Amino acid sequence: MSTSSPADRTRALTTREREAIVALLERGTSSIRTLPITTADRARWLSQVPHTLAGRSCGCGICPSIELTDAEGHTPATVDGRVVLQAEAPGALLMLFVEEDRLSYLELAPLAGDSIKVFPASTDISTDISTW
Predict the structure, then answer these.
(1) Count of domains in the chain?
(2) Is residue 1 part of a domain?
(3) 131 falls in which pLDDT band (50, 70, 90)?
(4) CB distance 85 to 125 below 8 Å
(5) Edge-to-edge strands of the sheet including 29-30?
(6) Which domain holds residue 13?
(7) More confident site: 52 or 37
(8) CA–CA dist 110, 114 (Å, integer)
(9) CB within 8 A of 116, min separation 6: which ones?
């Protein structure tokens, strides 16, 4: 019988995953319009990116969404008061979940039910909510 630790189920982020996280942290808007995201919040979360790994994928087969883990393979539990930063990409909504002040999930939700297998290039990520 083989046992594996959570860290055994992680991998380095791809360039596009990392770029999507950084774009959301730098420019993403809060899904709760009344929740202010401060410069200090963004800086604190950005400091986690170099140490963040990809965990389990969504598994739906139509999106590249992934759990985000620390070096030990742990993903924070879903909590009330989570922060969700959002942006738009061609044909999809892009979201970054922050639980307990830690990056926890990177989601790309196709809008038309199409299959999108990779995260968009950072230049294709828009946070101009007036176009939504």
Answers:
(1) 1
(2) no
(3) very low
(4) no
(5) 11-12, 53-57, 66-69, 102-110, 92-99, 83-89, 29-30
(6) 7-131
(7) 52
(8) 6
(9) 62, 63, 64, 91, 92, 108, 110
